[in-house]
Design a protein that fits this description.
Radius of gyration: 52 Å
Order of helices and strands: HHHEEEEHHHHEHHEEHEEHHEEH
CATH topology of one domain: Heat Shock Protein 90
CATH superfamily of one domain: Histidine kinase-like ATPase, C-terminal domain
Number of strands: 11
Distance between the termini: 66 Å
Strand order of the largest sheet: 6-8-9-11-10
Oligomer: single chain
Helix content: 55-70%
Length: 513
């Protein structure tokens, strides 16, 4: 659509639409007022008048008097019909206009009372036909006047638009076309003290500047060949520099790849050290305890050993040996587990076990750490949940989650409570839900999405390596074939909820790799 058509259409719509909308609203309001004055209000007045004048004629059965009252009302051409009925005799007086246009009828019925009793009723009907005919004539006259006014206004605006805008624009268009053809010597006409005149002055300034640029271009073309030669030589040198930079980039890329492999190896070593710390530390503690008990028993032997002391020593050594063996076996299991994760897992560690037994054995190995921090671990796992999986890895998962609760959840506080619960899932019969819950400080919302990322920790340099929960996630999802999620609110503790299959995937090791 051209600018001329767009502006003409805009002016037409800008004049016509408000006039139509405003005229419609005003016509509707005028019609409602006229209808109220000519039809609705007289109807109620006539009905009230007949209600008050009809009791005596109706009671006295004076039809002539009643008919005279009715005829006086029927003088109004808008009244179409009046019916006066006796409660006992039926129709008493009736009057009706002999016109065909009985449209827009409204009626009003009133009861006629005598001493409080209803002795009849009067019905009056009125038509809005004549009122509407008169209103239509007024509306057409007013509409014609408005239409003439709109046409005159539109014509005057069109003349103003044509003279003040379109003609100057057409002249400016001709000047611009001339400039486009290369005729830069003719001045652009700008004899107007308005915006279009300013635009023409700007175009003329552009003409002058364009002429200067073309002259400069002509002078530059004289030395273009030398400049091309110089640029070609510079481009060759730049290409040589780019080749050197590309070689350096390839070398850096290879170095980054080697660094990534070393970082992955370092991550695995850090994970092994992190996980072996607990069983080996417990083993060292138990060995030290056995050593101290043996030295004390050796002193007592020099003084004479009683049967009770000997029995106590043997029991303590047996208990300590059992704990030491369990921790050493746990360390061996962890080493074997990490070896399988890194290289090629075998089924050496897979067996059938009961979930409650593995959890309780894990708690035995962590008893000293839990008691040291004065925390309580409560286990609510029903007996008989039979699993075919990797008990060593499952114990490692539970240990990591408990250590995470002690380090991060309780944050140095004492008397924390850790609940370990499990139950078979009704919706997935072949799976068990295992959860580790604490009543610690909870996890901030901003950290929930990164909680399982490697090396992410809020205790860097304070005992946190950022590997514990990442290892838990990998073992649960990749090795055991389950899923894990965390739910937490700041100040209300955290819950790690795992859904584990009762039978681990047969090739979980391949998935982990």
């Amino acid at each position: 659509m051209s600018l001329r058509k767009a502006i003409v259409l805009g002016i037409a719509l800008g004049i016509l639409i408000p006039a139509v909308l405003l005229g419609t609203v005003l016509a509707r309001d005028s019609y409602e007022r006229e209808y109220e004055v000519r039809v609705r209000r007289p109807l109620k007045q006539y009905a009230s008048m007949l209600e008050q004048t009809m009791p005596v004629p109706l009671w006295q059965v004076d039809a002539s008097s009643a008919q005279s009252f009715v005829n006086s009302v029927m003088l109004n051409p808008d009244v179409v019909r009046i019916i006066v009925e006796d409660a006992a005799l039926g129709r008493f007086v009736h009057a009706e206009q002999s016109i065909q246009q009985k449209q827009g009828l409204i009626s009003e019925t009133r009861n006629i009372r005598k001493d409080g009793s209803i002795i009849g009723r009067v019905t009056i009907e009125m038509s809005s036909y004549w009122m509407e005919q008169e209103f239509l004539k007024k509306f057409l006259k007013g509409g014609a006047a408005i239409l003439v006014q709109l046409l005159i206004s539109f014509f005057l605006l069109w003349l103003l638009f044509q003279k003040r805008l379109m003609r100057p624009l057409q002249q400016l268009q001709r000047d611009v076309d001339r400039l486009g053809e290369g005729h830069l010597t003719e001045v652009v006409s700008a004899a107007r003290p308005d915006e279009l005149g300013s635009l023409a002055l700007g175009v003329d300034s552009m003409r002058l500047r364009l002429g200067e640029l073309m002259n400069e271009q002509a002078s530059h073309n004289a030395t273009l060949e030398q400049r091309v030669t110089d640029r070609t030589r510079e481009l060759h040198a730049s290409n040589q520099e780019l080749r050197t930079a590309l070689n350096d980039l390839n070398s850096a890329h290879a170095e980054i790849q080697r660094s990534d492999r070393m970082a992955a190896l370092g991550s695995l070593v850090a994970g092994v050290a992190h996980e072996l710390n607990t069983p080996i530390g417990n083993s060292v503690t138990v060995a030290s305890t056995i050593h101290d008990l043996s030295r004390e028993f050796n002193k007592k032997m020099a003084q004479g050993v009683t049967r009770a002391a000997l029995q106590n020593y043997v029991e303590n050594n047996l208990q300590a040996s059992d704990i030491l063996l369990r921790n050493l076996h746990s360390a061996a299991d962890l080493i074997g587990s990490f070896k399988r994760v890194a290289v090629d897992r075998t089924s050496a560690q897979r067996r059938v076990f009961f979930l409650d037994e593995v959890v309780r054995e894990t708690m035995l190995t962590m008893g000293a750490s839990i008691r040291h921090h004065v925390h309580e671990v409560r286990i609510d796992i029903p007996l008989g949940i039979r699993m075919d999986a990797y008990p060593g890895l499952l114990g490692q998962i539970i240990s990591n989650l408990i250590n995470n609760a002690i380090l991060h959840g309780f944050d140095g506080r004492e008397n924390g409570i850790i609940d370990i619960r499990a139950h078979l899932l009704d919706t997935e019969p072949a799976k068990v839900e295992l959860s580790v819950n604490d009543n610690g400080v909870g996890i901030a919302d901003i950290n929930l999405g990164r909680i399982f990322d490697p090396f992410f920790t809020t205790k860097l340099g304070q005992g946190g390596s950022g590997l514990g929960l990442n290892i838990v996630y990998n073992l649960v999802c990749d090795v055991l074939g389950g899923s894990i999620r965390v739910e937490s609110e700041p100040g209300k503790g955290a819950s790690f909820i795992m859904h584990l299959p009762l039978c681990a995937p047969g090739h979980a090791g391949d998935t982990a790799q």
